[in-house]
Specification:
The protein is α+β, with helices and mostly antiparallel strands. It has 2 domains: about 20-180, Electron Transport, Fmn-binding Protein, Chain A (Pnp Oxidase, Chain A, Roll); about 200-265, no CATH class. The chain has helices at about 15-20, 65-70, 85-90, 100-105, 200-235, 240-250, and strands at about 25-35, 35-40, 45-50, 55-60, 75-80, 110, 120, 125-135, 140-150, 155-160, 160, 175, 180. The strands form 4 sheets. It has a 7-stranded antiparallel β-sheet with strand order 2-1-5-8-9-4-3, sandwiched between helices. The chain is elongated, with a radius of gyration of 33 Å. It starts with 16 loop residues before the first helix and ends in a 17-residue tail after the last helix. Mean pLDDT is about 90; it is low at about 260-265. Bound molecules: flavin mononucleotide. Flavin mononucleotide (FMN) binds near residues 42, 65, 94 and 175.
Length: about 260
């Protein structure tokens, strides 16, 4: 039987599913086609395969970037740092169809190693990709990009993860929705179970402990009740308050005191 929904619970429009998935680092997608480069911020990205390494980006069909990637068959992801906050938002309001965004925002670029799309200076990391799959899904197109090279700024990314102790200026920007971004703040390290305390084993041991405890408690109670019974049969005085307290701590039904108990001290 399932429980009713929790009290703190409200329905939201299905269009907000993407909002709930927000929080990853925003990227600036760069492309180049026929000698012209373009850049757009993008939040809808996901790993798709680890062997080979393929990542996916969902670009709305109407974006100039979608056309360019279809033709170029490649793209780069640039992970902007904190100082790019306002640039990112601004780039999302301009289309490369009408304007050279690199020129407009004076973005400095450098050469990639495996593709031709330019990489943007001052970012926390860069991924170079070659398109291996294209799926049209609703109003977006999902480009599957085989990762051909990765570069990182070690001040932002170290030991295989974002460096949480990095200076504010070196942290990537995480998009939350609207014009709100966040920076990764502090690390919360989960306890890693050692081999011998694999969750199933811990659970089994806890249950066994509980059973052992309840068995002992039952035996103790039966012993006390036996003693009490004998006292009652002998017509001796019984401390009812102490007995009630004793019984209140047990799970079994209270002893029937109707016959022969002498009340009071
Ligand atoms: C933070 C942010 C995240 C965005 N994420 C996406 C996205 O995931 N997919 C998309 O198609 N557009 C996204 N956009 C919108 C495009 O960046 C925007 O429409 C841009 O102007 C398109 O440029 P283009 O026409 O030169 O390709 C995002 C915009 C911002 C500001």
């Amino acid at each position: 039987m399932l429980n009713p929904p929790p009290e703190e619970y409200e329905d939201r429009p299905t269009s907000e599913a993407s909002r709930l998935l927000m929080g990853g680092p925003v990227v600036l997608v760069t492309t180049t086609w026929r000698g012209k480069a373009n850049v757009m911020p993008l939040a809808w990205h996901t790993p798709l395969s680890s062997k080979p390494p393929v990542i996916g980006i969902a670009v709305e069909q109407s974006r100039h970037t979608a056309d360019m990637i279809r033709h170029a068959g490649e793209f780069a992801l640039n992970f902007p740092k904190r100082p790019y906050l306002h640039h990112v938002q601004y780039l999302g309001a301009l289309s490369g169809e009408r304007i050279d965004k690199f020129d407009a925002l004076q973005l400095a670029t450098f050469a990639p190693t495996t593709i031709t799309s330019p990489l943007i200076e001052g970012c926390a990391a860069w991924i170079e990709c070659q398109v291996v799959d294209t799926f049209d899904i609703g109003d977006h197109v999902l480009f599957g990009g085989l990762v051909t090279a990765i570069h990182v700024d070690p001040r932002s990314y170290a030991d295989g993860r974002w460096h949480l102790g990095a200076d504010e200026e070196d942290r990537p920007l995480h998009f939350v929705g609207g014009n709100v971004y966040a920076a990764l703040d502090r690390a919360l390290e989960a306890r890693v179970p050692r081999d011998f305390e694999a969750p199933e084993r811990v659970l089994r041991e806890r249950i066994e402990e509980e059973l052992e405890l309840s068995r002992e408690a039952r035996e103790r109670r039966e012993e006390q009740l036996g003693l009490l019974q004998r006292e009652v049969e002998r017509g001796n005085i019984v401390d009812v308050d102490a007995l009630a307290a004793e019984i209140a701590t047990g799970d079994d039904p209270p002893l029937d005191l109707s016959k022969g108990v002498i009340l009071g001290g």
